[in-house]
Amino acid sequence: MAPKTEILFLGATGYLGAGIFTRLLNHPKASEFSITTLVRSTEKGEALKKFNPTLKYAVGSLYDKADYPVIEDLGKKADVVFSVADADYLPWTTALLKGLKARFDATGVAPILIHAVSLLRAYLTRRMLNVFSKSGAGILLFTSDPAGNHSDLDLEDVKAVPPTALHRNVDLAAIAADEAGYVKTYLICPPLIAGLASGPLYDAGLAHRNSIQAPALMRPALDRKQAGVVGDGKGVWAAVHVDDVADTFVLLFDKIISGAPGVGHGWEGYYYLENGELSWNDIASAIGQTLVELDVAKSPEVTSFSKDEISKYFKSEFASSVVSSTCRCKGERARALGWSPKYSVADILAGLKTEVEFLWKKAQAEGKVDITPNYGVDAMLQRFASLSA
Fold first, then answer.
1. Which end of the chain is less congested by CB atoms within 10 angstroms, N or C?
2. Which residue intervals define the domain NmrA-like in the entry (predicted)?
3. H helices within 181-267, ranges in order?
4. pLDDT score for 389
């Protein structure tokens, strides 16, 4: 009997990760997999086991160095790692790569690392210096080509992203491991992910359903009872539906384990995902129309947030700049492997209504609109700054 493929999954209860995790549990070859996930509590691990009694779990945190031996040990046992939990914190990544190297040294076979990276790392049009840094060194968001000519097949462009870009430190560590030959790395880079996630883990309350970027405009709109944008709202982002992203992870996984030709890794393993573009005005307009339909607002008009509102809703200049920025790309590498996204921009816009309705029902149940940002930008910047402190 052939040994099972040992899969380590990081981020099983996240907005994106839960959908990918569910697809693995329901995979046609699931009986050939042995899946382990990292959870923050025994309770969470036992809750996940209800969906697959053979699931194994370890308790620990990616952000507690006391748990890094646990992460390293998990890496030593993994044939494949799905990393969908964090894109920019190097210490835990280093522990994982150390474990994966030990796996390679023991087996002679390079483990697979499929890692999620936000396109936020490089292709924003608005420059910001000294956004956050304990050491005084600026953290820079790099200027995008206004025409959006960033293709994942253009290796020169992919390599041109400076090492100080957001998430780039983790990217470079993963690629260095690939170049050293002890890991094969695949970096999936979605831009603006949209869509209300669905599935058993979400139904059980183990994962949150809402996306990140669009609700950053939805929550303020519900609170002020009028759709709004930062600045003129003309910034444009490439967009993709959460289900299309989850499908990409599984497609890539299938191609890798089947030995299909043409599956790039390392520098040729960047996979940008997009199926069209949306402006922040497009998003806000869809929100405004839904507010009227919900009888929350009298007019669908979109207005610019005031300075005080920006401070209230976004907490930092960096966070507000993200929802006024431009981030464009061309996702060609995944399409070359057969990826065919199901959801168009029109579908994504229509789906924003469902997200607004979900947040409004939640606000009614709780008696208030939760305006706490859920995208963790400030925490991300703090982690980045700690690396240079």
1. N
2. 4-86
3. 200-203, 215-224, 242-258
4. 38
